């Protein structure tokens, strides 16, 4: 045990120590006074549905005493929430189960997930640009005010950021032909879907376009078909249950086909 400790101690240069200390301080600030502000509208909505999970096991718009008074937009005829995927609600419900209901417990897991994103970003950038740029990227992310504000909210933002970086890391593994890349790509894509559906389609379109443009994967088409097939199987149940093809949203008429056509117009402008 002692030789192992000595080995890692010798490998720690002053710059490494400064990097670790800087990250620790910035992460500490991220945890500071999580209950300083009340839960705002979207956070309160997430917590309300999470309390429904605690009461029924399902994301319902009823916390046991009150009902969200919306005109059948946020939930379906089964009284289950379909405005957003359910992952964020179960994360908050788990936190409430472990630590009790409070603003701190509602936000805690999302902050920790945001910190994991920083570590994953370091590993991802390290593979491409080396140690110096990886450290700089991590510190800059922690110094980003918008990033810190988003990860301190009990909302899907932190999960989406983590899964996006995970997908980039997994794609680098796939591009280099490393083993185990496809399970990571599949898991990251599914996690993105159950965080935010619009981001899922945007990122999958980007990955697919890049694969087509690169044109280097002709010999691995079976693996790619398997990846897309598994992702479809794991995401389609909620997609069809929530009736995303033609369901109205809070802002009026909306469906996936209309969104795709609008994206085409934007691409032509570019």
TrEMBL record:
GO terms for molecular function: pentosyltransferase activity. It holds the Pfam family PMT_2. One of its GO terms (biological process) is lipid biosynthetic process. One of its GO terms (cellular component) is plasma membrane. The keyword Glycosyltransferase applies. The chain crosses the membrane at residues 12-32, 108-126, 156-172, 184-211, 223-241. It is found in: Cell membrane. Residues 84-239 form the Glycosyltransferase RgtA/B/C/D-like domain. It is a multi-pass membrane protein. Its main location: membrane. Keywords: Cell membrane, Glycosyltransferase, Membrane, Transferase, Transmembrane, Transmembrane helix. PANTHER family: MANNOSYLTRANSFERASE YKCB-RELATED, MEMBRANE PROTEIN. This is Glycosyltransferase RgtA/B/C/D-like domain-containing protein. It comes from marine metagenome. The lineage of its organism: unclassified sequences, metagenomes, ecological metagenomes.
């Amino acid at each position: 045990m002692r030789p192992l400790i000595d080995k890692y101690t010798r490998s720690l240069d002053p710059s490494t120590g400064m990097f670790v200390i800087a990250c620790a301080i910035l992460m500490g600030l991220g945890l500071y006074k999580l209950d300083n502000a009340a839960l705002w509208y979207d956070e309160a909505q997430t917590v309300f549905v999470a309390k429904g999970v605690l009461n029924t096991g399902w994301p319902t718009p009823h916390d046991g005493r009150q009902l969200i008074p919306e005109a059948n937009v946020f939930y379906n005829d089964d009284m289950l929430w379909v405005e957003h995927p359910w992952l964020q609600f179960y994360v908050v419900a788990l936190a409430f189960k472990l630590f009790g209901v409070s603003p701190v417990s509602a936000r805690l897991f999302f902050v920790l997930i945001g910190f994991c994103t920083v570590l994953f970003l370091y590993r991802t950038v390290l593979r491409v640009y080396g140690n110096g740029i990886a450290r700089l990227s991590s510190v800059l992310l922690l110094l980003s005010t918008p990033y810190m504000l988003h990860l301190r909210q009990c909302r899907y933002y932190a999960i989406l950021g983590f899964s996006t970086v995970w997908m980039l890391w997994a794609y680098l593994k796939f591009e280099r032909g490393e083993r185990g890349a496809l399970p990571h790509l599949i898991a990251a894509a599914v996690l993105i879907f159950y965080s935010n559906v619009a981001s899922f389609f945007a990122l999958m379109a980007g990955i697919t376009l890049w694969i087509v443009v690169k044109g280097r994967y002709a010999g691995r088409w079976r693996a790619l078909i398997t990846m897309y097939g598994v992702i479809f199987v794991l995401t389609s149940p909620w997609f069809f249950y929530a009736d995303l093809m033609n369901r109205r949203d809070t802002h009026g008429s909306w469906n996936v086909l209309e969104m795709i056509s609008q994206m085409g117009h934007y691409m032509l402008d570019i």
